[in-house]
């Protein structure tokens, strides 16, 4: 079971300007890990050293007891889709290191108390995606997702405390990161979306009113690089906190708040985005949206409406003027 042991864990690293701990030299530490044969999965490799330090989330994933992934368990390294799929469904806490390019088909479940982390800058998952379904305490970090046939990452069915961090997403079929069906306490940070259309959906549908009172998600320091829409598209969730993201050349829109969602859009940088924010979208009823401290370069005026509940956690947003440099250099796989 997950316990909040942040104060007792040895950490070597630095604090980002947004207040999140980031490990130094994580790629080198992963590669240097000693390997021995796994007794549970003969084709995977069990790593003798302690789990790599992946940092701590800022935002909603730090609430509700925090998100530590597989930190309380062992570490195993995989290099094939079959190995990855098998390790993700194990019952015990585990850090699963993904090495090289791994091919999946369709959506593949990950169980509670897991960290799925790429080794070095080239770790990739192609063809399929990861399904966080009725799971708690999951971290997905430092992976290049490409050419997925459904979603790259889907969080659903009441999953809680999920951190999706420092991944890259390109050329997939549907959502890069979709969160829905009463999921809660999620942070999506430092990801890079490019050569892709539908980025991040939050909320299943206009009819799924069960999402009300859930879908508390923080999106920060993500690079939406020419992607078309859903950065995010929100139904019902409150408070959805969207801060310090870099929006560039998004053809359709940036953020949409619908179905009475409450969205705080803070200190982001919008560059060449005709519709930075929408209140209501397509056939969905209007939500509420507060925009503060944003920069709109070559962009249209934001749509805003109503009030939004404040977030309960501490955070330190960067100056919006600095976001293009900070995020373009730091977002995506390989930038831990």
Give a verbal description of the structure.
- With about 325 residues, this protein is mostly beta strands.
- The protein has a single domain (about 60-330), classed as Single-stranded right-handed beta-helix, Pectin lyase-like (Pectate Lyase C-like, 3 Solenoid).
- It has helices at about 25-30, 80-90, 325-330, and strands spanning about 15, 20-25, 35, 45, 75-80, 95-100, 100-105, 105-110, 115-120, 125, 130-135, 135-140, 145, 155, 160-165, 170, 175-180, 185-190, 190-195, 200, 215-220, 225, 235, 240-245, 245-250, 255-260, 260-265, 270, 275-280, 290, 295.
- Strands 3-4-5-6-9-12-15-18-21-24-27-30 form a 12-stranded mixed β-sheet, with helices on one face.
- Strand 1 and strand 2 form a beta hairpin.
- The two termini are about 25 Å apart.
* Count of alpha and pi helical runs: 3
Q: Which whole number gives the mean pLDDT? A: 88
Strand content: 35-45%
Number of strands: 31
- Gyration radius, to the nearest Å? 19 Å
CATH architectural name: 3 Solenoid
Q: What is the number of domains?
A: 1
The fourth-level CATH homologous superfamily is Single-stranded right-handed beta-helix, Pectin lyase-like
In CATH, what is the class?
Answer: Mainly Beta
Which residues sit in consecutive blocks of at least 5 with pLDDT less than 50?
1-42
What kind of sheet is the major sheet? 12 strands, mixed
From the N-terminal CA to the C-terminal CA, the straight-line distance is 27 Å
CATH topology, by name, is Pectate Lyase C-like
Shape: globular
The oligomerization state is: single chain
Q: In terms of structural class, how would the helical and strand content be classed?
A: mainly beta
Helix content: under 10%
Sheet with most strands: strand arrangement: 3-4-5-6-9-12-15-18-21-24-27-30
